[in-house]
Amino acid sequence: MDASDSAQDVARCDLCKTTIAQSYCDFCHVNLCRPCIGEHISDDYKTHIIVPILQRKSTLIYPKCETHQNKTCECQCKDCNVFVCSHCMASSQHYGHKFLHLEELFTTSKKCIQNDREELNYKIIPTYKEIVHELEMQIASLDGEYKKVTTEMSKQREEIHREVDIVINQLEKEIGEMKVKHQSILQKHLDEIKQLQSLMQQSLNALNEMEESNKVIPTIHYSSKNEQFSKLPPKVNVSMPNFIRKQIKKEELGSLFGKLTPLSTTLEERVFTAKKPNTSVRELLDKPEVLNTINTGYGDLCSVTCRYEEEIWTKGVYAYINCFNIQSVLQKTTKTKSGNSPSDIAVDRDGTLLYSDWRTRTVNKVKNDQIEEIIRLQGWRPNNLCVTSSGDLLVTMCTDDRTQSKVVRYSGSTVKQTIQFDDKGQPLYSGNSFDKYISENRNLDICVADYGAGAVVVVNQAGKLRFRYTGHPSPTKNKFVPLGITTDSQSRILTAEDNYHCIHILDSDGQFLRYIDNCGLKSPQGVCVDANDCLFVCEFFTGNVKKIRYLK
Predict the structure, then answer these.
(1) pTM to 2 decimals?
(2) What's 507's domain CATH number?
């Protein structure tokens, strides 16, 4: 086989185009075979830098000095910001100045270039490919999505037509009944008049006979009936029914039929977060152990959040949010502004306490003992909270009638993202329960413990469904009922299950790893992980918070 036809062809000489290259000009950046080296350097052999081909691009090409001919600049004057040669450095012009070696600058810059190239090639460009693929999928699905809208309109048209036909048929039936009654009234009156006509004709005939007759007795006993006949029967007036059309304005008809929501376009900020590989893998302990038990003295604990052992925030079904240290000493107490029990609590990156209030439809911030409302909802009620690695706030919420649920991402008080439906337009979350604990993974997945659905629902940063976890198959266990949820530095997902008093540990792809069920947990609910990957679990009935070590 001709080497030139091989898919794994070796480097060829750039001059003769046929011979295999053994050398490389590090000045001109060309491949050279041995016979072509002489031809290549014949014009100025001092300029060219010939190296073995495996060492190509290893020789640095320094800039020429503009002041001293035939000298190269190997440094940069930091004070003057110009390239200098050895003669320049020794001159009075640069006396006392600081110099930077170009080789060091070159090496540093090369590392930056290499890092940028790798980030662009392996992270940024693939991210853009995902964005392009997502947009192409959206465009490809437009026909189907718009067909759904027109189908709904057609259903509405058929239903309205059906209702109109029912109304018209009823009216036509009533008109028919009125016509029969109208005809009956007139016919009865007609029959009565015809009967009188018959009597009058009989009387007329009798009068004609009597006028021709010479009989005395009948004539003298004649009694006139004309007065009776001259009394005309009353005129029967039966009013015709009329159809009074209701004037329907076009806008009224449109509101009766329904309306299209306007086509709205929003720009959602994309934040590129380079995923750093986790080099330190911490394995699970064979037997997790309880390190501390914090006795809060308050029962019905629902949530726990912490950043340090000195600040362990808890909330129950009362209006107070309490902060304890690891020795169970109460450090601080905050009462909600409304006097209601908070739905959930969280701590942001600055250590500021946040809480949601289901009854007032608000999310609030507590700073310097002052409570500030940062979010107020309409038609929706906030439930559980999570502060993301980028500082955004994720809020789970339900409609007033508990038929719909969604996750909303806020930057401050501004909505950045809404996650509610999957690619097929189906709800991601159940609508029959307020409890939807939420956490963000290290790989930026959004993890929700959906109590009503009996599932952990995980979507990626863009809100696309990754997987659902509905419990570890076991013949001895009933339906999976998750409550609290958190994630650790290994992107593992930990969720509490109240029914069986245990913690499920999943990997980042939703595969079950093991239970934490040997630590004497009683009705675990809220969970969180601190900076050292220690797990804190609050027990609903006992009011205790247990600190558990589960990683090696």
Answers:
(1) 0.53
(2) 2.120.10.30
- Contacts of 520 by beta carbon, 8 Å cutoff, 6+ apart: 290
The reply to whether 172 and 46 lie within a common domain is: no
Is residue 278 pLDDT above 60, yes or no? Answer: no
Half-sphere exposure of 275 (CA within 13 A, CB side): 16
Q: Is the model's pLDDT at 5 over the cut of 60? A: no
Q: How confident is the model over 140-185, as pLDDT tens digits?
A: 888 888 888 899 889 988 988 998 899 899 999 999 999 999 999 9
Q: Are residues 178 and 241 in contact, defined by beta-carbon separation less than 8 angstroms? A: yes
Q: Which amino acid is at 138?
A: Q
User: How many other CB atoms are there within 10 angstroms of residue 437's CB atom?
Assistant: 28
Q: Looking at the domain assignment, is residue 224 inside a domain?
A: yes
Tens-place pLDDT, residues 317-341? 889 999 999 999 999 999 999 999 9
Do 324 and 314 form a contact (C-beta atoms < 8 A)?
A: yes
Strand order in the sheet with 311-315: 303-308, 311-315, 320-324, 330-335
Is it the case that residue 3 has pLDDT exceeding 60? no
Strand order in the sheet with 370-376: 344-347, 353-357, 362-367, 370-376
Q: What is the pLDDT of residue 290?
A: 94
- Nearest-angstrom CA–CA distance, 72 and 46: 13
Across the strands, what pairs with 512?
Answer: 506
Average pLDDT, the chain: 87
One domain, residues 203 and 321: no
Q: Which of 460, 457, 403, 459 is nearest to 432 (CA)?
A: 403
From the list 442, 462, 441, the residue with the least C-alpha distance to 131 is 462
- C-alpha span between 438 and 407 (Å, rounded): 9
- From residue 433, alpha-carbon distances to 12, 397, 406, 437 in Å are 70, 10, 12, 11
> SS3 string of 142-171?
HHHHHHHHHHHHHHHHHHHHHHHHHHHHHH
Helix axes 142-212, 125-140, angle to 10 degrees: 20
Provide the angle, in degrees to the nearest 10, between the axes of the packed helices 250-257 and 142-212: 120
How big, in percent rounded to 5, are the helix, strand and coil portions of the chain? Answer: 25, 30, 45
Q: Does residue 278 belong to any structural domain of this protein?
A: no
Q: Which two tokens stand for residue 321?
A: 């949010």
